[in-house]
Design goal:
By secondary structure, the protein is of the alpha/beta class. It has nine helices and eight strands. Helix 9 links the parallel strand 7 and strand 8. The chain is globular.
């Protein structure tokens, strides 16, 4: 492990397993990690017989993560985060409600949930009883947990309205929100890591904020 790998691969779209990428990153190397696992939650728990059909084709075709895989990522993320550093963890409502996400974080004794942002996509999606319109970004911080000296933006609402402009990936995330989160916890030229980059929206946010991006996706 060393910074040679990091410096050689900054601000690129790497095609590789995110666990392999994280394994190359030195301890305490970054103040900011984004993690957007490919959960089974939505497709399994909203099983109305149409998985892999119609609008679900793209989503169903993506490599799915089991809980052991997600925990492997979180262990590595805890290692590469600097003290006071932040993890922005995208999560679906089923993992949010059943408590599994909270249990994963509790297993990592230096991490704790400190806040959450609800992303209102302003577009109704899948659902039966209710239709999905929101996604959730859980804010996790590494100890020693401090707010005043680590968070630089104080007008960020915990419900964020943003329509997607780039829909190149079925799990595209809001660039402007991620830009604000990056500005809140990092400084110019700092390193931001995204080991499951999907459509590389975090890379785009880093380019807009003069931060250095290190990230990858299985599909490149």
């Amino acid at each position: 492990m060393g910074f040679d790998f990091v410096f050689a691969n900054l601000n690129r779209r790497l095609k590789m397993d995110g666990r392999e990428l994280l394994a190359q990153v030195p301890d305490k190397a970054t103040k900011c990690v984004f993690f957007d696992p490919q959960y089974r939650g939505v497709l399994d728990k909203m099983n109305y017989g149409n998985e892999g059909k119609s609008r679900g084709i793209e989503r169903s075709a993506l490599p799915q993560m089991d809980e052991d895989t997600i925990k492997e990522f979180l262990v590595q993320i805890e290692r590469v985060l600097a003290p006071n550093g932040y993890l922005f963890l995208w999560i679906d409502k089923f993992h949010l409600l059943d408590g599994s996400m909270t249990a994963w974080i509790k297993e990592l004794h230096s991490l704790a949930i400190v806040d959450m942002v609800v992303w209102d996509k302003q577009k109704i999606g899948m659902g039966y009883r209710t239709r999905r319109r929101c996604e959730y970004c859980v804010i996790v911080q590494k100890e020693p947990r401090k707010a005043k000296s680590t968070w630089q933006i104080h007008n960020l609402a915990d419900v964020w309205l943003e329509k997607l402009t780039n829909k190149a990936h079925t799990h595209s995330k809001p660039v402007v929100l991620q830009k604000q989160l990056i500005l809140a916890v990092t400084n110019k030229n700092d390193l931001v890591i995204d080991p499951c980059a999907g459509g590389f929206s975090v890379l785009e946010a880093c380019m807009l904020t003069d931060r250095n991006f290190l990230g990858c996706d299985l599909l490149g």
